Hints:
The chain is an alpha+beta fold and 170 residues long. It has helices at 42-53, 56-68, 83-92, 163-169, and strands at 111-118, 124-133, 136-146, 152-159. A four-stranded antiparallel β-sheet has the order 1-2-3-4, with helices on one face. It is globular.
Amino acid sequence: MTTSTRTSRPASRPVSGRRDTRRPGGPRAVGAPQATFPQAAFPQAAARRRAAARLPHRWFADQLVLTLSGRRPVHALLGHALPAAYDRLVELAPQAPLRPTGRYHRGPDPEVRECGVCCPRSGVIEAFARITAGDRVRALAFRLERGRDARWRCAALDIGPSVSVWSRTV
Length: 170
């Protein structure tokens, strides 16, 4: 077994005096500000998206969009909805009111653009979500209630008017 020893840098050669002239911007002077690139904002935006995804109303809005667009089965929300809300979801899901429009359903996937919240009392969240898919904007409203086990469950659900939803009630 061989061991290698590392030698330290000579003290006579200062670290700050060395410049790499092959850099795209040429040598940089000591104390010059570093260039900021547009990619620097991405980690912060990703962190904001992750923090928003942990909020119960935002998580549930994302799950509803997946279910009502036909990308996730209804029973995926079985433990996350009270019976009345689950029945409403079962009624809406076959119509897939948020399914992408266009020929062969190849339009842009719907996504949650904004999610607002109102807390009328402790343990209750009433929320709305603006759902966009291309040029189309839809509204989604729901109520979450916290149970004794500290889990949030959907108690009510409503989606803005659409042709398929209104044609059943007329």
